[in-house]
Amino acid sequence: MIDAIFHQTAADAGWNDAAQVGVLLRYAAHAGSTATLRIFLDRERLAADDTDPFTDAVIAALGDPGLALDHSFRRYCAGCRDLLTVRQAAERWCCWRAG
Question: Which of 12, 26, 68, 87 would give a disulfide with 43, using CB separation of 3.0 to 4.6 Å?
Answer without folding.
Answer: 68
